[in-house]
Design brief:
Helices cover about 45% and strands about 20% of the residues. The protein is α/β, with parallel strands linked by helices. Helix 1 crosses helix 14, helix 2 packs across helix 14 and helix 6 crosses helix 9.
Length: about 325
Amino acid sequence: MASRLNRKIKPIDPRATRTPNALVSDLAGCSFQGRALSFALEVWEAMCRDKECVRVMSLAGAMVPAGMGTVIIRLMEADLLDAIVCTGATLSHDLCNIVAQDEQAHFIGYEHEDDEALRSEEINRIYDTYLPESAFRSAEEALASLLPTFTYDREAGGLLAITTCSFVEQLGKKLKGRGILTVAAEKGVRIFVPAISDSELGLDVLTANVKGRLGDGRRVVFDTLGDVDEFSRLIVNGPERAGLVTVGGGVPRNWAQQVYPYINMKAKSDKVNGADGYHYGVRITTDRPEFGGLSGCTISESKSWGKYENQAVEASVVCDATIAFPLLTAALFERLG
């Protein structure tokens, strides 16, 4: 029993804690999710310092309306991300910001609102944030005007096929302004949007198809299975290890993880060596594993699927991402200088 009692709790001193790194580091001597947050920073720092590591981030939820877009941009500008897997909504809201005045289309709102009144005023509510419908219309028009200028992967029967990765990269290169789309294109960060039809971005493309914006009856279709193969090549042809920072759950999280089962399925058919899984894992979530949903699935459970190495260095924080994500990032930047 005595061997278990070798480290006492060290209460945090708010007067002694002056910086994000000091705060998160000092939480290592505390308990519950404070300690989990401190350990997550350790794992993320190790991932970023590992020169032989592909760094991937999956993003779900309304991170851009919540004001987290610049956090993601700063990580890309610091060369701390190689790939992003996200919802279409993440980029829909980012596009709204890029084309808006002052590059911000979202407004502080109120969660206890008369939603029928908001509808009559053409204001969309994301919990306590407002986005006017006019912002979506501006984004739709900006995208539709660019679609005819894209280079598509292949064309057959009037269908213009393109991976979401190529689509997002070209869109980022053609836009003017600072956002996730444009900075990713500039820095060479690959972005994959596996559920693009479940977003305003996908609906914008569909609307352009219906309105015949590409001419001659041509329509854009997304090759999302091609994205899987493209992502697998990024992992296989990259450095020795890979790490995944998961913000929220949803499709992006498991899509980013399933690459290793796919690589190993392909390896068996090609009779070559497979891959062991992610070496680093950081997860910020409010979902629980008890209900069997993949968004609540623990990293340990994912090891049984071969999505993480058996000896993966991993940490999970059960916390609102708008609290944990910016705090961890600020502390990470401080540590890395």
